[in-house]
Every structure is written in C-alpha cells, then in structure tokens.
Amino acid sequence: MSMARIVVDPQFTVAPVDRRLFGSFVEHMGRCVYTGIYEPEHPLADQDGFRKDVLALTGELGVSTIRYPGGNFVSNYRWEDGVGPKEQRPVRRDLAWRSIETNQFGIDEFVDWSRRAGVEPMVAVNLGTRGVAEAVDLLEYCNSDAGTALADQRVANGHAEPHDVKLWCLGNEMDGPWQIGHKTAEEYGRLAQETGKAMKRLDPSIELVACGSSNSKMPTFGSWESTVLEHCYEVVDYISLHAYYEQHGDDVASYLASGVDMDRFIEAVAATADAVGARLQSRKRLRLSFDEWNVWFQGEFGGEDSLDWAVAPQIIENDFGTVDAVVVGGLLVSLLKHADRVGVACLAQLVNVIAPIRTEPGGRSWRQPIFAPFALTAEGAQGVVLQTAAEGPTITTAEFGEIPTVDTVATWDQASGTTSVFAVNRSPEESVRLTIATQGLPAVRTATAVQMAVGGAGAAAGSDESAWSPRETAVELSDEGAAIELAPGSWTRVTLVA
Ligand code: AHR
Prior knowledge:
The protein has 11 helices and 27 strands. By secondary structure, the protein is an alpha/beta fold.
C-alpha cells in the first residue's frame, strides 16, 4: 500500500466556506419541475402542489441556493406566461427541449417553493430571444415595492412583499450554437453590459453573473470570456463556468481524476478574468459562478432533435453508481480548494434530470449515490477552507498525464472544534494510507470517517440505497493526528473533533 501525508494547519486558510458553494439547479426540463418538485395530484403534495417528500430530501441534501428556470430553457422563455391565475396561463412550445410547457409553475411558485425548502433563489433572465426590457420587467416584478405596474401585478397575484432575489444570471450558455438566440461574444458582451446596467439601476443590491463558456472544450473558450468581460467587467460580479463529466470507454482512472480538469478550468477562467481586470486598470476581482456541474452520460443523450413535444417527458434521467459518486466527491474537493475564487456552485440538476433525487410520478422518491458525497460535504464543510500541504504517490492517467493519486482539502470550524478532511483516491487499483498531521489545532479527541468506493457494493446504479450507502471506516489516532486507509477509487470524509 502506498503512503500519503497531509498537513492541516489553520495558517493555510483559503477562504471562509461560502454556503453558496452547495447550490443546485431546477430547470423546466424533463421532469425536474413537473412530477419532480411540483405535482399537485401527488398524495404527498402540500396546498401549493409541492411534493413534501422532495422538499424533505432537498433539506437533507443541504443545498443552499437554487438556479432557475434554466438552462437552455430560459433562452426562449416568457416569464409573464408563468404568473397570474393558473387557468389563464398559456400552453407553449419550449424550443430548447422540444417540450410542451404548461406554465402551471412560474416565478411566484418557484420563490414560494424556495422559501419552503429554505434555499436562496437564483434567477436567470432570457437574453436569447429577449433583451434589456424584459429582464428589467422581471426584476421589477420580483423586487420592487408596490406602487408601480409590475410590482402591483405581483401583489395582485398574492405576493404583497417583494421576492427580494439577490442573484441573477444574465442569460445561459450564450456561446453555444445550440442555444436559442445564440450570440457572438461581442453581441453578448454588449447585451450583458446594457442589461446589467439597467438592472442594477433599478436594484443596486443585486449580484449579476455573466455567461462564460459552456465548457472548456468550446472552440471559443478563453477568447469568449475575454471579449465578454471587456464589455461588462465593471457591471457584473461573477463569470459562469459549466462542466459535465463522464467515463470514456474503460478509462476509469481519468474519470476518477475529473477534478484535475475542474481545477484547470477554474484557474484558467480566474486568470482570464484577472487579465481583463488588469487591462481595464480595475481594482475589482471577479468571482466565479460554477453554476452547472455534475456527472452526465452525455454519450447516451440523442440530442434535442430526438425529443417529441411532450409535457414533462423523461429526459436524461441517468442512473448513477458509486463511481459517479466518487467523481462528484472529487469535484466538490476541487470547488472547495478554490473557495477564494468560486463563490457560487450549482449541482445540475436537483430532481430527475441527471439528479441526486429521483421520483416516480404519483409514487415514491429516492436518493441516487451522488446524493451522499454532496450531502456529507455540505454538512461537514464548516468554518474556513484549509489548503492541505500534501505529499504522496502519483498515477499516470490517459487524459491528464501524471497527477497526485490522492487529492484532499480540509475545513476547520473553530466554534465546534471540528476539522473535516475530504479525500479522493483516484487509483482504481491501489489503496493509500493517508496520514493527517494536524498542526496549530487543538488535540483531536474523536475521529470518525465515512467512505464510498468504486467496485464495492452498489457499483451499479439502483434505487436500493442500502447497497451503496457510505460505510463507516476506521480512523487511527496518533500524536501527529490521524491515519486512515483510502480504498482504491474512493471518496472519504474524515471528521476530527477536538
Ligand atoms: O443541465 C442541462 C443543460 O445543460 C442545461 O439546460 C444547459 O445549460 C446545459 O447545456
């Protein structure tokens, strides 16, 4: 067995743990909204048609912030269709997912659902088929006090108090040719600047996210961010990143190392944003919004044109296994390591669509294996993020070359005296003994750990949660700190309490 060692020291603080790192995403896509979070006919629906079983699982998952209503959907969405008396709302064709949109769920329902779920709403405006006026209208509808036409419309629709939505996305994936209303970087940069200017004039308390690249393999990656930010750097607060990972062929090692790609992506976007800031002689430092990330078997998706105008069709309801859970755990390690730059992150999506939570229409709901590393990280990551000085073995992967076998990050919560260490062993074959040397921290009194491993029980997907639930794993205490065995292809959370 190889040996690795990390030093956990509060002097190596990266940043406070921002709860917004544990966001998720609800899109009008497939069955995420209809028969996902909203199903008035379900026996467990509350008075507003929200599924109480899904609300409970959302709470257990520990999500903080939820992005809505898309995704690609937003780029052809008329928000006005989704407000007012439900029987008067129009049925429309959604071009993004070739689906029929009933508009029985809209912005008012989403904000009500968010309050009930205890999450912060993050709302995207349509900059595909629409522009400045419609974005400002939606903001006025949501955030203005009564006394002007759109705010009064909200009041008439039963919401006397403003929704007070703070986080706003200026469109979605506008660099993607698949996007309805796709734009060049010049076109989008100007539109984002003008829309952002008008929105902040109406409500200066909001925070704005500009669209970065849809993924780091886009041919315009880098130049897109640069051009867009040349226009809107001063008005926006975040630039977005999106990334989805899957295994290619039988290359498990590269899949397990997906966090390397996320690390490089984050660092490249931060550097690009900083370069623009320098050119503009700006004192401002942009933060990053990783507002879509997850695993997704994209190779199995037939594309938008394969879809056929149904209401809430089954789209990309991927069944995940433990290997996907380990990858998700590794991606969370990457996000935490960059907590000084990444201020928002959204696991895409919340329910049914490549999601940690699944439902049957009229039936049960269950957790997928990726639920576990997310919930355990959201729960365990408290206080401040600590960079872990690490030494240990390396492996060579087809996609990333030679990389450290073990990737780790820690958090330290002074109030409870708790240190959490999150570790991923990317070797599919070899166990690694990890020594955690604590430095400048009170002596550890108790140590516990939970682990999920590839190839263990539940390697295949399934709704039998007992087959894949994280296992308690022994941790040894020593004068130096603690030590634990990381199984091949595993994700582990270690909790050390002083
Ligand atoms: O999450 C599914 C889709 O992936 C989103 O609609 C889009 O933004 C991304 O390409």
